[in-house]
Design brief:
Blueprint lengths: L1 H10 L2 H18 L1 H14 L5 H27 L2 H5 L2 E4 L1 H8 L5 E4 L9 H5 L7 E4 L5 H11 L4 E4 L3 H9 L3 E4 L10 E6 L2 E6 L1 H7 L5 E8 L5 E8 L7 H18 L28
Parallel strand pairs: 1-9, 2-5, 2-8, 3-4, 3-5
Antiparallel strand pairs: 6-7, 8-9
Helix pairs in contact: 1-4, 2-4, 3-4, 4-8
């Protein structure tokens, strides 16, 4: 049903499809209490300066943005790449080009923005033959569509396949990687994210070492006129061989990227579910 809805919305005019996506997000905000709770807890941790009313408004905008993101995923999978090429502008492209000129491949550090999949075809005018490290979906049917959809603009790689990622980097390709989720304490250190300790993967620092590849932060933002801005920023010096310092740098770069458009980030994830003191009740205790 979800795939069918996405396919239908792809056929509609862009403004109509995104409007329906925004309304769908608003409906989910009011009906899916569990995800609304997670979002409000995250916003309370990351934006303590905001009032309850302001966080509620930001949470609703987040759901609306992610509703549009569902529609944009359909655009990424099924619309011609000429459609996205006509709607994109790049900022900081010189940083990406300088990194590619080294000939050692590039790690495209990113985060889970609502226009996540659409960033793939959006980057095609500037980067060809890229790869993406991702966690395969638990549902085999959804995984089939995700893999096939992403194959239209990049090469999907299981995030455990580091040696294949190394091969891609040796071919001077870009490898997209988003480490901004909580995968538990194993293989992680607790580094500040919006001023709060968050389990952060140390594997992020291992990726550049595979081929001494530079890292560039890659952000995608949706504009009010239904165009998109891609932003490229160098991440250096990285890595430093200090796991905590490296994780802190990564979180800081991602945080800065999110703060530009916080409503376009996927706050529905339990980013702080693993805590150094063993307190796993951050999301269970809240009533929102």
């Amino acid at each position: 049903m979800v795939i069918g809805l996405m396919r239908i919305l792809t056929i509609l005019p862009t403004a109509v499809g995104l409007f329906i996506g925004r309304m769908l997000g608003r409906l989910i905000f009011h009906t899916v209490v569990k995800r609304r709770r997670v979002t409000l807890v995250n916003l309370g941790i990351c934006f303590p300066e905001l009032s309850d009313q302001q966080r509620w408004k930001l949470a609703r905008k987040t759901f609306e943005a992610n509703g549009m993101g569902l529609v944009e995923t359909g655009y990424a999978w099924w619309r011609p790449h000429s459609w996205s090429a006509a709607r994109v502008k790049a900022v900081g492209l010189e940083h990406l080009q300088a990194a590619l000129d080294r000939g050692r491949g590039v790690i495209l550090l990113s985060a889970h923005f609502s226009a996540l999949d659409l960033s793939g075809p959006l980057i095609l005018p500037f980067v060809k033959n890229s790869a993406v490290l991702y966690r395969p979906h638990n549902n085999p049917l959804m995984e089939h569509f995700i893999y096939k959809g992403r194959q239209t603009f990049c090469e999907p790689i299981d995030r455990s396949e580091f040696m294949y990622a190394r091969k891609c980097l040796k071919q001077n390709r870009c490898v997209w990687y988003a480490p901004d989720q909580d995968f538990g304490a194993k293989g992680s250190v607790f580094a500040p994210f919006f001023g709060h300790p968050a389990a952060t993967l140390t594997a992020t620092a291992r990726l550049p070492a595979l081929n001494r590849s530079p890292m560039v932060m890659f952000s995608v933002y949706r504009e009010p006129d239904h165009t998109y801005t891609l932003m490229f920023e160098p991440v250096e010096p990285f890595p430093t061989k200090d796991d905590l310092a490296d994780a802190t740098m990564i979180n800081s770069v991602i945080e800065r990227s999110i703060r530009r458009h916080p409503e376009q980030y996927m706050w529905m994830h339990k980013r702080f579910k693993t805590q150094p003191d063993g307190n796993q009740q951050l999301y269970k205790a809240a009533r929102c």
